[in-house]
């Protein structure tokens, strides 16, 4: 793909296909993702919860026509969960590939969401895939799988949320090219919320203005600001006929905190916005 073609893609001047999940770019992330894929480079996405990291990966997988293997990382996720293990089948033991191994064998994107939540041995198994070797050694089977040209490793995490003990080591981060994603500007966010929920643009503007006020409370009363995802949920409830204050309470207040005093403060902001 030429540079001019990538530029057209980044600006969304190419025809919109119905089979591609909606994603509104906020910068040059589409072009960078395509360059990384074609240069066989692993990619790290950084950004707050609900800013669209997973939707972006789904969009790009469909855009590039690639299978997508998504893994939601958690405290108990081990390297074996990714690579595979021997399982009992009909009285015999048979090897069963994990999602990472399937992606390496078959091609496609393997996406590890919130990779820092996984156990430390997970990042170790990724290292041979993130340099020029692009290998996945399977100690249990004795195989050394070489990733095909259409394989891509993508990981994501929220650097503002993670505890100091849950972060990527510099030696791991420097194996990836990285994109920092954030919540879009107000006009773009209004477009996204309106498109996803079906609510009128005018009513979505009030929700986005409210989100800006709530995000300003991050680090004071709130650990996290309201996400674009929650705005879409709220707008969808309103579009379905729920009263605005009830929708805001269910989608914007309760998910953000369990502290009664904090919830009261947020409710005052919501009431001041919508009356």
What can you see in these coordinates?
Helix content is 43%, strand content 17%. The protein has two domains: 178 residues, 3-Layer(aba) Sandwich (Rossmann fold); 89 residues. It is elongated. The chain is built from twelve helices and nine strands. It is of the alpha/beta class and 275 residues long. A hairpin with a 4-residue loop joins strand 6 and strand 7. The longest helix has 15 residues. Helix 8 packs across helix 10, helix 10 runs antiparallel to helix 11 and helix 11 packs antiparallel against helix 12. This is AAA family ATPase. It comes from Halomonas litopenaei. Pfam families: AAA_5 (PF07728), CbbQ_C (PF08406). InterPro entries: ATPase_dyneun-rel_AAA, CbbQ/NirQ/NorQ/GpvN, CbbQ_C, P-loop_NTPase.
Strand content: 15-25%
Helix tally equals: 12
Q: In whole angstroms, how far apart are the ends? A: 52 Å
> Outline, from the CA principal axes?
elongated
Helix content: 40-55%
Structural class given helices, strands, pairing?
alpha/beta
CATH superfamily of the largest domain: P-loop containing nucleotide triphosphate hydrolases
CATH level 1 class label of the largest domain: Alpha Beta
Give average pLDDT, whole number. 88
Radius of gyration: 21 Å
Count of discrete structural domains: 2
Helix-strand string? HHEHEHEEHEHEEEHEHHHHH
CATH fold label of the largest domain: Rossmann fold
What are the segments in which pLDDT stays under 50 over at least 5 consecutive residues?
A: 1-16
**What about the largest sheet?**
5 strands, parallel
Q: Name the CATH architecture of the largest domain.
A: 3-Layer(aba) Sandwich
Number of strands: 9
Biggest sheet: strand arrangement: 2-5-8-1-9
Organism: Halomonas litopenaei
Keywords: ATP-binding, Nucleotide-binding
Protein name: AAA family ATPase
Domain ATPase dynein-related AAA: 42-176
